[in-house]
DNA sequence: CGATGACCAATTATCAAATCTGGTCACGAG
DNA sequence: CTCGTGACCAGATTTGATAATTGGTCATCG
C-alpha cells in the first residue's frame, strides 16, 4: 500500500474514533465499532495503532495539532501573539472550541474516562510543561515578564491560574453569566497582570523572539506528529 | 438534659464523626460506629442531627467555623488583613492545614466522597459567594480594588484563580517543589496583582472598613453556627 | 504481501441472594 | 414525665458465580 493511501486510511480511523468518542464516551467505544465505521476490519486498526489507548491518544494529539498550527500561524501573522496573555487567550478559546480537548482539559470523565489519567497523556503534559518552561525563559531573558516571583513560583502560579479557568466552570453551577469570549478576556487580563511587564513591547524585539518561539513550537509539533500515525508496513 | 450537656454531647458526636471520616473516608463511616465511638446509642445521634448527611455537613461547618474565627481575629488585630491578597493567603493556609477542609476544597473524593457534591454543600458555597460579592462591593466602593475588569468578570476571575490554586496540586504530580508557604505567597501575589490597586492603603480607611467587613463575617458566621447543632429536645 | 475476522484470555456486565445500614419508634430507665 | 436506647424494617449495597464482551493476535485468504 502506498504511503499516502496508508495515511489516508489512518485519518479515516481517527475520524471514526473521534466521532464515536464524542457520541458515546471513551469507555463505550470498541475497536470493532471504530473499524466498522471506518469501513475496515478490526485487525487493520492494529496495523496503525499498537493498542486501543494509543489510538485514542492519537485522536487527542491530532486535535491538539490543529490548535498548535493555529498558534504558530497567529504568531507569524502578528508577533505580539507571543505575549503570554495573548497565547493564554488563544489556547483557551482553541481548547473550548474543540470538544475533545475541552473534555480533556476539564477532566470530563464522562467523555474521556480513564484516558485523561493515563500515563501516555502524562508524557504529553510533561513535554508541554517543558515547552512553556523554555518559552518563559526566553521571555524573561528579554525583559518581557515580571520577576516579582521567582521562576518556580511563577510557573506554579501560571499553571494554577490556567487550571482554574479550565476547571472552574463546571463548579460554578450556572452562578455566572459570562460568555466564552468574556471568560477568555478575563483569563488574558489575569495573565497580563500577573506575569507581564507594563508598557508596549518593542516590535523589533517581538519579531526577533517570534522566530525563536516558533522554532520551539515546531520542535514539539514534530514530536507530536510522530505520535499520531504509525509507520506503513514494510517501512519499519 | 441541660443545654450545656446537650451541646457537649453534640461535640463528642462531631469529634467521633470527624475522626472516623479522616480514618476511613465518608463512605465507610456508619452512624452506628460514630455512636459507638461517641459512647452513646445510635438513636441519640438522631436527636442531634436529622440525617447522616446533616451530621457530616455539621462536621465540615464546625471546621470552617474555626477558620472563620481566625479570619475575624486577624482582621481585628490588623485591618490590613482585609485586603484580598492577605485574606486569600490566610484562607489558603487555613484550609490546607485542616484535613477535612482540604479534602473538600480539593474535591478529594476518596475522603469526602459524595458529600462534596451534595446539595447541602451548595447552599454553603452559595452563601460564601454572596459574602465575597458584598465584600468586594465594599472594597470597590472605597477604591481598594481595580476596575479594569467589570464586577462579574472580576468575581469569575477570582473564583477561577482560587479554584486553580486548590486543584492544581494533585495534577502537577510531583513536578514542582514549592512548599505550602511559597504556594500561599504565590496565590497572594497573583491576587494582589490582579485585583488590588497599587500603593499602600490609608490605615484609617482600613480601620473603618474592618468593622463593616467583620460585621459581614459575623453575619455569615451566625448562619453557620446555626447549622452545626440541632436544638435540645423540648427546646423546639 | 496486506487485510481480515475467528479465536482466546482476560476483563467487564449481569443478577439474585445475602448483607448492611440509615432512620424510626416502642419501650424501659430514671 | 422525659430522654436514651437498640431491635426492627425497608431500601440500598455488596457479593459471588455466571454470562457476555472485547482488546489484541495470527493463521488464512485474496
TrEMBL record, chains A, B:
Gene3D superfamilies reported in the protein's UniProt record: Tetracycline Repressor, domain 2
HTH tetR-type domain ranges (all copies): 7-67
UniProt keyword Transcription regulation, yes or no: yes
Protein origin, superkingdom: Bacteria
Record's keyword terms, sorted: DNA-binding, Transcription, Transcription regulation
Pfam family, one: TetR_N
SUPFAM superfamilies: Homeodomain-like
Annotated region of DNA binding: 30-49
PANTHER family: HTH-TYPE TRANSCRIPTIONAL REGULATOR BETI, HTH-TYPE TRANSCRIPTIONAL REGULATOR RUTR
Designated name of the protein: AcrR family transcriptional regulator
Amino acid at each position: 500500500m502506498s504511503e499516502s493511501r496508508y495515511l489516508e486510511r489512518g485519518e479515516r480511523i481517527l475520524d471514526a474514533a473521534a466521532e464515536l468518542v464524542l457520541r458515546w464516551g471513551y469507555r463505550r467505544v470498541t475497536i470493532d465499532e471504530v473499524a466498522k465505521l471506518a469501513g475496515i476490519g478490526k485487525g487493520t486498526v492494529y496495523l496503525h495503532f499498537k493498542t486501543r489507548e494509543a489510538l485514542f491518544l492519537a485522536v487527542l494529539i491530532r486535535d491538539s495539532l490543529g490548535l498548535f498550527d493555529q498558534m504558530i500561524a497567529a504568531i507569524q501573522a502578528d508577533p505580539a501573539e507571543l505575549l503570554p496573555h495573548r497565547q493564554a487567550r488563544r489556547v483557551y478559546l482553541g481548547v473550548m472550541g474543540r470538544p475533545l480537548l475541552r473534555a480533556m482539559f476539564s477532566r470530563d470523565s464522562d467523555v474521556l474516562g480513564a484516558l485523561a489519567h493515563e500515563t501516555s497523556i502524562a508524557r504529553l503534559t510533561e513535554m508541554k510543561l517543558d515547552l512553556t518552561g523554555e518559552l518563559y525563559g526566553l521571555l524573561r531573558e528579554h525583559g518581557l515578564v515580571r520577576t516579582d516571583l521567582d521562576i518556580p513560583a511563577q510557573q506554579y502560579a501560571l499553571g494554577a491560574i490556567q487550571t482554574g479557568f479550565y476547571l472552574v466552570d463546571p463548579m460554578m453551577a450556572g452562578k455566572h453569566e459570562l460568555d466564552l469570549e468574556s471568560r477568555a478576556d478575563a483569563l488574558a487580563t489575569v495573565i497580563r497582570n500577573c506575569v507581564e511587564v507594563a508598557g508596549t513591547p518593542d516590535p523589533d524585539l517581538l519579531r526577533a523572539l517570534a522566530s525563536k518561539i516558533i522554532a520551539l513550537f515546531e520542535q514539539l509539533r514534530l514530536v507530536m506528529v510522530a505520535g499520531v500515525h504509525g509507520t506503513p508496513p514494510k517501512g519499519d
